[in-house]
Design brief:
Chain lengths: 256, 303
């Protein structure tokens, strides 16, 4: 398992699907571990009743069907399927509504879905998903990306209420890839994935949605920032180490 | 997502193993090999995959190996390949015998006359090599360069066409800092005797991998063409080197520009730093959204 995760850490992120399916076929005995530890770009399906797309993941799956957050129906239809309690479903509907607005403000497009379900210890779990295709043929406003994908998965475990506060454990993964291509500079492609955790105790009085939303917003900002500043920055630094820009090379000359 | 749990044949396992090895980032194939070995848990399958994948990887990454004796470094490239484990180093006229899987040079022998270009060609090759070594040592702190003749190496004098290839390979591996990268340039130069012209075709490739608590990879490719006039060996060499220097400097600048464009244009098309409203999302006040939604639904102006 450790070696398998080591391989995932080195394979190009844009080939993570191929890498995971290769590992699954080599290590069928570890398939559930692999599937829970490796995140993949999200898939979508269209809710036939509402005519709106929703995102698929392990958390809205039962057998081979997926539950749409819009109509609450499984696609394809499934009898005796699992549903959240009506109280939780109400929160789920509200979360989907508000998260759509959040998503629109940050992503200027994209698809989002929120799923919730009861867990064993008096709390519940919520999963917030966002998928955005920012390529110029899709929803890239600035039209500069030949290819561009952003997938975010936020899973929050919400603990039981204790003296007015609740513990929220957030695990977030962002996967992205972007490619620009033009005559003068050829193809330039960056891809990556990051996973981070954040735990907070917050007053219940503010409402679960408000608490979870703030945590996700903060986390997404952090992840985006570290991708932009740290991770992309490190690859840029590497390029400049390999072939320093002229000014730097000249500055070094007197020493050598 | 459920995979069928049919047992794979050894042949299928080998193909999968090769895929992992060939997709290793610069300088990381040995780490990939180690993990792969324990995932496969079948040494014969691994060995067969390694013996097929390593030579391909070594040549495509144009790895640099130290030769025994005082001959310096040799590049493992398809242009210097005499057979599967023998690679010509044109600079020293030596042939390195290479163990692909261990990535070492085990032995060195002098090249035979048949393996080397004619004196006429060698004059052009050698002059270009001298110019390129000068350029590479200035531009690349860790660059290695070779110049091969890949077509018409036996031409005895003016009147025939030939083709040289300049290869530049620069790798920087610092696994302790979770960062590896490589720069590869391949320049084909066709010496066209009839039209007294040199046609240059460049292929530049840069890769970088940063993997401290994550996995982010840069991968770029660029091709370009240029031409200059066929002159004496020394003048041709100077002209070619200056064309190469020009294009590679421009390319580096365009990479820098791609990075500069990231925050405000490229990355913004995936996710903005701030919402379109330019303030953080009003989680405390989301009831207003529900309200406006209700109203727009009632008025039938919903999205």
């Amino acid at each position: 398992m450790e070696a398998a995760m080591g391989l995932m850490r080195r394979m190009p992120p844009r080939h993570s699907e191929t890498a995971l399916s290769a590992l699954l076929s080599l290590l069928p005995q570890h398939s559930s571990d692999l599937l829970s530890q490796v995140d993949l770009p999200l898939q979508v399906l269209c809710d036939v009743d509402i005519g709106k797309e929703f995102i698929l993941c392990e958390y809205n799956r039962d057998a081979d069907s997926y539950r749409s957050p819009w109509s609450n129906k499984y696609h394809p239809l499934l009898e005796d399927a699992l549903y959240p309690s009506s109280e939780l479903r109400k929160l789920e509907i509200e979360a989907n509504d508000i998260f759509s607005i959040y998503r629109d403000q940050y992503y200027e497009g994209g698809i989002s879905s929120v799923y919730m379900w009861e867990d064993d210890n008096e709390g519940f779990v919520a999963c917030f998903l966002i998928k955005k295709d920012g390529s110029k043929n899709a929803q890239g406003r600035r039209g500069c990306l030949e290819e561009g994908a952003w997938d975010a998965i936020h899973v929050i475990e919400v603990g039981p209420e204790q003296e007015g506060t609740t513990r929220y454990c957030l695990t977030s993964t962002v996967m992205l890839s972007l490619t620009t291509d033009d005559e003068s500079s050829g193809t330039f492609s960056l891809s990556g994935s990051l996973r981070r955790q954040m735990n907070m105790n917050l007053p219940v009085a503010d409402g679960h949605l408000c608490n979870m939303g703030k945590m996700i917003e903060e986390m997404e900002g952090k992840l985006r920032n570290s991708l932009d500043q740290v991770y992309f920055g490190k690859t840029r630094e590497m390029v400049c180490t390999l072939r320093p820009p002229a000014e730097v090379a000249q500055m070094r000359l007197p020493d050598s | 997502m459920a995979e069928e749990e049919t047992e794979l044949s050894d042949e299928q396992k080998k193909e999968i193993a090769k895929w992992f090895l060939l997709n290793a980032p610069a300088g990381e194939i040995q780490y990939v090999a180690k993990d792969l070995k324990s995932v496969l848990n079948a040494d014969d399958v691994y060995n067969e995959a390694a013996s097929e994948a390593f030579p391909v990887y070594n040549k495509s990454h144009m790895i640099c190996l130290g030769m025994s004796g005082h001959f310096g470094d040799v590049l493992v490239t398809s242009y210097g390949e005499l057979n599967e484990n023998e690679y010509l180093d044109p600079k020293t006229a030596q042939v390195a015998i290479v163990d692909h899987v261990k990535q070492v040079c085990t032995e060195v022998r002098p090249a035979t006359d048949e393996e080397l270009p004619s004196p006429y060609i060698e004059e052009y090759r050698c002059a270009l090599e001298a110019e390129m070594l000068k350029y590479v040592s200035e531009a690349y702190p860790k660059g290695v360069c070779s110049v091969y003749c890949i077509n018409g190496k036996d031409a005895e004098g003016p009147g025939s066409d030939f083709e040289l290839v300049v290869v530049i390979s620069a790798a920087r591996l610092s696994p302790q800092n979770f960062c590896n990268g490589s720069w590869r340039s391949i320049w084909n130069i066709e010496f066209k005797d009839d039209i007294q012209s040199l046609e240059l075709k460049g292929k530049l490739q840069v890769g970088a991998h940063y993997f401290e608590e994550g996995n982010v990879q840069l991968d770029t490719k660029h091709e370009c063409r240029d031409s200059t006039i066929f002159q004496s060996p020394d003048d041709s060499a100077i002209a070619i080197a200056s064309v190469i220097r020009h294009h590679e400097t421009e390319y580096l600048a365009s990479l820098e520009e791609s990075y500069l464009n990231l925050p405000d244009t490229t990355f913004k098309d995936l996710r903005r730093k701030l919402p379109v409203t330019r303030t953080l999302f009003p989680w405390h006040n989301t009831s207003q959204f529900s309200l406006t939604r209700e109203i727009s639904k009632e008025l039938g102006i919903g999205k």
